[in-house]
């Protein structure tokens, strides 16, 4: 139980901070891409496609080998790895709201591009983005658990759910609870996050 609680710090820190980092990068690059279009969109989306095409496990292996297998490194690496997904989602939502009548009304009233982006578009896309962030948080927790299982997450003796699962794999026949308990905790956590994200997304889709 003590290791589960201390391992939750690792898994939840990565599961919260990495998606927030991806969201920040997505807003920083996705909003100008969807708002200005043209060459800005082509450059940003080409870079995002290149990162998406690169094998994620290889990226994390190289990243952790350069900067060391620390919690900060794992969080930063996963955040950068998922940021192109946020760029795509932010761009799509920005394009959708850029064509609304209230944007044209803001232009006619004399609002500049920065004011339109932060006062008109950003408040409208934050709700759907938060729902998507929660769904991605579940994916990131699973990814961190997979890295811990492979020994690529935070080094021992710092506990993590993935590391606990890996430690119990050799005793599955004699003591299956050693691995099944952290598996169950991770499953319930990811399921809860996904259900909350789906509920928020359903609210905004219905609106």
Explain what this protein looks like in three dimensions.
The chain has helices at 2-36, 38-53, 56-67, 71-98, 101-108, 113-149, 161-168, 177-206. By secondary structure, it is an all-alpha fold. The chain is elongated.
- What structural class is derived from the secondary structure elements? mainly alpha
Poorly predicted regions: none
Q: Report the portion of residues in β strands.
A: under 5%
End-to-end span in angstroms?
42 Å
Largest sheet: none
How many strands?
A: 0
Mean of all residue-level pLDDT scores: 83
Rg over C-alpha atoms, rounded to the nearest angstrom = 20 Å
Helix content: over 70%
What string, H for helix and E for strand, traces the elements in order?
HHHHHHHH
* Continuous helix count: 8
- The outline comes out as elongated
Characterize this entry briefly.
This protein has eight helices and no strands. The chain has helices spanning 2-36, 38-53, 56-67, 71-98, 101-108, 113-149, 161-168, 177-206.
What keywords describe this structure?
single chain, 207 residues, mainly alpha, 84% helix, elongated
Layout: helices, strands, pairs:
Blueprint (H helix, E strand, L loop, with lengths): L1 H35 L1 H16 L2 H12 L3 H28 L2 H8 L4 H37 L11 H8 L8 H30 L1
Helix pairs in contact: 1-2, 1-4, 1-6, 2-4, 3-4, 4-6, 5-6, 6-7, 6-8, 7-8
